[in-house]
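Risk register update: the risk of archive-format incompatibility is retired. Evidence:
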Amino acid sequence: MTYYGGLVNTHILFCITFFIFVLSNFSFPLTFGFWPEMLVVTGLAIVSYIDIIVILISGVFSLASNLIFFTKVFFGIVTEYLVKYIDLTKNEIFLFGNLVFYDILFGLRPNVYLVFIENPVNFLLTALCYTN
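Archived output:
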């Protein structure tokens, strides 16, 4: 027997967690993937505008493919097996919760991890002669 409406009707907590990961994957603001993407784009603004256009176009395709994947999985057809059984253990739920917490924390406070890469980036920029 198949059910329509997807996993959203049966596994709502997993759907919310996975949606936050999908948002982070295409560099949505206030997630971990946003700040590195902005650093790459602003760094490329110094070098080439064509590279920025290519990255932004690929970002649009990434956004579309991630959202299509999410809607197919979580709003598509569900079999009886997925309705009866939960595949996540308590340890996995705890792990997903921690990953979502750090994803949002690093999205809101990027200086927590940007401090660690400041010296290597400055060294590379000095070595490549892109600084004044």
